[in-house]
Amino acid sequence: MTILVYELVGSDLSRPFSPHCWKTVMSLAHKGLEFERIAVPFTEVPLVENGAAKTVPVIRDGDRLVSDSFDIALYLERTYPERPSLFGGPGGEASARFVERWSQMTIHPFFGAAAMLDIHDRLAPVDQAYFRDSREKRNNGRSLESVASEREARHPEFLKKLEPLRSTLSYQPFIGGESPLFADYIVFGAFQWVRVMSPFQYLPAGDPVLDWFDRCLDLYDGIGRSAPAAA
Amino acid sequence: MTILVYELVGSDLSRPFSPHCWKTVMSLAHKGLEFERIAVPFTEVPLVENGAAKTVPVIRDGDRLVSDSFDIALYLERTYPERPSLFGGPGGEASARFVERWSQMTIHPFFGAAAMLDIHDRLAPVDQAYFRDSREKRNNGRSLESVASEREARHPEFLKKLEPLRSTLSYQPFIGGESPLFADYIVFGAFQWVRVMSPFQYLPAGDPVLDWFDRCLDLYDGIGRSAPAAA
To answer: What is the ipTM of this complex?
Structure first.
């Protein structure tokens, strides 16, 4: 049966952009499962599956509803063990959590701030109002414009923080080794988020992290490229 | 047959301190293999096994010599597959590399600088001369004393950089999940390095990273505690 996946979009429905939803889309593609993508703007997230979850991604697999990208990956791994593994064993499962926490605490804070205004500009008006209000509260009242204006100044430090990933990629083409695993999709989700919503050049040409990201965009018939880059 | 492991020591032979050698000792203990530890001061590393390796750890397993802590872990995993796995499968193997690069680039620079003078003070005189000379060259001529003096000032930033590890440990007791894997020993090695050679308090009481480190010190009959902490 086709799995439904609910994904965050802005005003352009062809441009799903949530990092966490992309982790799930890549997980489903990795498993070779049939799935249907359902676009959900910010202000309609509470309506998904009659309010079953507070956040997306959510998947419906028959009568099962699962939310949270990591929990979804674990669910898919347990439910479809005969399909390609998302973790490569229990050790990969445990350390994917470390990769997730690293990505969340190293990459997300910079992207969240740096792309904030670009994301806002690509939402439908009703979502823009929600987004501005919730994000400015989260930033102690600082405007989106003020937070985003530090992007250039903070960029060099961000590139330096990627060094552990960059160095890992000098040993192997993917975080998962010779081929990608969920650990890759965790970090891919973050880069895809800004690729789709922010025209800023986050990675310089020749950066091994950019080469890795390009390899990820090529996976599964280029499903990542199906969402156009922000211009 | 008993495996020989060559380990770096200072003036006190009961205090092996190299982070990389500790990774190997923990790997051997994890596999439940018999091994004999051979103490090597800095200036005798070039003499180990007739100059077979430029660095320690080195292990001799029958007629096989293996160096580099990661390569040794891979060797042990391949050679003794029937014993407890160090990686928990191919995914764990691949992402252990990421943990290694993270540890090397996040923890080691601070520890290397912060403990530099304490390490020097715990070496035999001939090793002290080598250590001061090589480390001051590496630091563009800055004295050990000058580098070490920044310890307190840099400490808060270091504690912040541990956040991905700290957060991971709120999900699971070890980086490897419910029980430790080589990924744990990678980070353990770094903390053991400074525990054994530097009396500075690197982690505050109550830090989940300290609790994890204590759990690691308890492993394998407390082999980590067999080296006394610096006083």
So the answer is: 0.97
